[in-house]
């Protein structure tokens, strides 16, 4: 179990995160897995704001606040400094960013970090919008979702009809890639451990519910996260050396409307739009199954 990894709590309670937010769970699991010899480079966003209201902090490890766009570059500099000091192998270096700072504003910096092959674990806590700045649409926002910049629901027509497939784009850089879900903490911890042992760059994207932006009751976050898994809205897999492996598969599939209808951000959707999402999810899942079955290196 996770508690057996590091008994000491390195993420302090009493932060100012919204009730039911998934991000504090993400932070706690990271530090339960990585331990005290960890440095966190945190991009601007919800996690940075609610964990460090001056003069307080929730972090019991070295923590650096970076801008939206440059957290990966800052961590790259820290990596080089640790090598210079001869303590790189003793330190887990983690970048934390939301989907806005990862998919959009910070992607150039992330790409550079990946290309250079720094031994850094980048964790994207994916709550599918710019929540800290007012629930604006990001590259991770699913089709039809209501945000303050897509009040009628996100409807982009073209190749980006649903969302950016950032894990596959990252995998094309040669990194270790995994997707995870706050409802399955041990799976997340196992992938973190693997990333810390990986000789090079790693990227983990974790599904993190946001009751404020998704408009669901604060006590339903884990239930919704489990539905994201059982509906295949957010598949869980790893890509190592360009080969994909589904790390967890639903034993019983749930229709996507069971997931969508529990969130206010999707309440405006028609039956036709829900059917569109179901078709997209089915096609994506079948594609992942075929890639795994082939065993081929996709990058």
Show the helix and strand layout:
Blueprint: H1 23-34, E1 38-43, H2 46-51, E2 63-66, H3 71-85, E3 92-98, H4 99-104, H5 107-116, E4 121-126, H6 166-171, E5 176-181, H7 185-197, E6 202-207, H8 211-214, H9 221-230, E7 236-240, E8 243-248, H10 256-260, H11 271-294
Parallel strand pairs: 1-2, 1-3, 3-4, 4-6, 5-6
Antiparallel strand pairs: 5-7, 7-8
Helix pairs in contact: 1-7, 3-5
**Name of the CATH architecture:** 3-Layer(aba) Sandwich
Number of domains as seen in the coordinates: 1
Main β sheet profile: 8 strands, mixed
Q: Looking at the structure, what is the overall shape?
A: globular
Mean pLDDT, to the nearest integer, reads 94
> Total helix count?
11
Terminus-to-terminus distance: 33 Å
Q: How many whole angstroms does the radius of gyration measure?
A: 18 Å
Low-confidence runs: none
CATH topology: Rossmann fold
Give the neighbour order of strands across the main sheet. Answer: 2-1-3-4-6-5-7-8
CATH superfamily membership: Thiamin diphosphate (ThDP)-binding fold, Pyr/PP domains
Number of strands: 8
CATH class: Alpha Beta
- Could you state the order of secondary-structure elements as H and E? HEHEHEHHEHEHEHHEEHH
- Helix fraction bin: 25-40%
Share of residues in strands: 15-25%
Derived from helix and strand composition plus strand pairing, the structural class reads alpha/beta
Commentary on this structure:
The longest helix has 24 residues, at 271-294. This protein is α/β, with parallel strands linked by helices and 299 residues long. Helix content is 37%, strand content 15%. An eight-stranded mixed beta sheet has the order 2-1-3-4-6-5-7-8, sandwiched between helices. It is built from eleven helices and eight strands. 45% of the residues are buried. The protein has one domain (2-294): Rossmann fold, CATH 3.40.50.
